[in-house]
Amino acid sequence: MGQWYTxxxxxxxxxxxxxxxxxxxxxxxxxAEMGRLLGVSxxxxxxxxPELQDIDVAVVARAKAEAAxxxxxxxxxxxxxxxxxxxxxxxxGALIAWFLDGVGIQGLLRMMQAWDDRSxxxxxxxxxxxxxxxxxxxxxxxGTITLRAQxxxxxxxxxxxxxxGQSKTFAEMSPAEKDTCSMxxxxxxxxxxxxxx
Length: 197
Known about the structure:
Blueprint: H1 2-20, E1 22-24, H2 28-38, E2 43-45, H3 57-72, E3 76-85, E4 92-93, H4 96-112, E5 119-130, E6 133-145, E7 161-163, H5 175-179, H6 183-195
Parallel strand pairs: 1-2, 1-3
Antiparallel strand pairs: 3-4, 3-5, 5-6, 6-7
């Protein structure tokens, strides 16, 4: 009886975290992906946050998570992901969303035409914040920028990034395939372990 009660209390504590966690995003596909990776139901909410200008996704994620928690007052996390092109000394990094808004996938591919080195890495930083403070969980994957967009799934730069050791871009992969090799999956797994989800 006592042992059963202890297990129940632990599960109830985990349920509280799962029930109250919110991803700050307007991207429903990203929220669904995070819920799948964390193995819990993830609510999502779009709110306006200050956008720190820095190429380091961890710095940006921490600032956004802390601002989001201050705004809504419940456990919250944010996802900030960057594309770091080696030939460009790590640019655009966390500024990739601005690049995509400005020139799109095709513009990025045109900008890469002058470079033989197409190696890159993608980094996701999940910034989590609650009443105890903020934590950052990072995942990184090396790969290459393809010569043309390939695949129709995913979002952002998924059609032009092929992870090392793979023959498909993220956009060509099924969700299950992507979950085995994505930077977001690595970061989410670290978050799951740390938070006990």
